[in-house]
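Quick one, probably user error.
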């Protein structure tokens, strides 16, 4: 009877002790396991990749620069100009000449400078009305320095001569004036021709420089060695086209402008030739009658 009472109590104590011992032994690993381990995934977590070094770091830097748009500079005009190399100097000189001569021709080929309408109307009107003699007509032409006035003066100098001589003198004077109006046309043609050649030369030199850098480095997997040479090649090519296209447009425009002014000069000289020739015919008739 004495042995039957403590047996259940001892069993309970033994079971509790075993449970506490098991929990104490498995608490560390159980707490350190992740959710993936409890789910049955025994693969270890991926270790953090080490930072790239050497060529890998340079390639990664180029990739980041391309993704962020930093290859080729920030796109500012001055950076682009300085990035084109030495051939940007003659291209800038061509652009400067284009601007200077373009402004000069735009001012000189105005209608008010070549064929002033008010002067032509007054001179022709007074000449046809008989209000001018030879001296007065020559003085009026000399007081107004313009191509049409110089053509009128050439016709007036043949005052009293046959109509053929008067017309030939006016035609010769118009040709001389048109030659002056056509000057500097070769400047625009030259700039339009030579600028793309400078750009092409810059392209070739940039490619040569890139390949030389690759050969010296001995590595085809480094795109940063190609970036500088290719950038120089593309900048010079673009600059050559930027200068050549406006030069070609200005050359065509000023050529057509001179052609229109030549037609206006011819139209204005016709009534002057007729009036001077008529005056010469009257003088000849009076001389014969006298």
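Nope, works fine. Designed sequence:
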């Amino acid at each position: 009877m004495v042995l039957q009472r403590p047996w259940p109590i001892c069993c309970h104590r033994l079971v509790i002790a075993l449970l506490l011992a098991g929990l104490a032994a498995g608490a560390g690993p159980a707490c350190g396991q992740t959710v993936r381990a409890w789910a049955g995934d025994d693969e270890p977590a991926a270790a953090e990749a080490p930072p790239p070094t050497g060529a890998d770091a340079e390639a990664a830097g180029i990739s980041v620069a391309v993704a962020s748009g930093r290859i080729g500079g920030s796109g500012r005009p001055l950076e682009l100009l300085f990035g084109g190399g030495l051939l940007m100097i003659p291209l800038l000189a061509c652009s400067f000449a284009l601007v200077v001569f373009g402004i000069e021709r735009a001012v000189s080929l105005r209608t008010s400078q070549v064929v002033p309408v008010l002067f032509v109307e007054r001179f022709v009107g007074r000449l046809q009305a008989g209000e001018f003699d030879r001296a007065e007509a020559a003085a009026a032409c000399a007081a107004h320095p313009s191509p049409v006035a110089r053509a009128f003066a050439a016709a007036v100098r043949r005052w009293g001569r046959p109509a053929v001589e008067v017309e030939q003198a006016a035609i010769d004077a118009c040709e001389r004036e048109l030659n002056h109006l056509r000057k500097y046309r070769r400047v625009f043609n030259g700039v339009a021709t030579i600028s793309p050649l400078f750009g092409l030369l810059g392209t070739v030199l940039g490619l040569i420089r890139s390949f030389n850098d690759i050969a010296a480095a001995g590595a085809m997997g480094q795109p940063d060695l190609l970036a500088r040479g290719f950038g120089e090649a593309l900048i010079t090519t673009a600059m050559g086209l930027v200068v050549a296209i406006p030069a070609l447009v200005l050359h065509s425009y000023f050529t057509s402008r001179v052609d229109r002014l030549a037609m206006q000069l011819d139209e204005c000289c016709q009534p002057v030739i007729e009036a001077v020739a008529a005056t010469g015919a009257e003088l000849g008739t009076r001389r014969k009658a006298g």
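The two ends are 187 Å apart (CA to CA).
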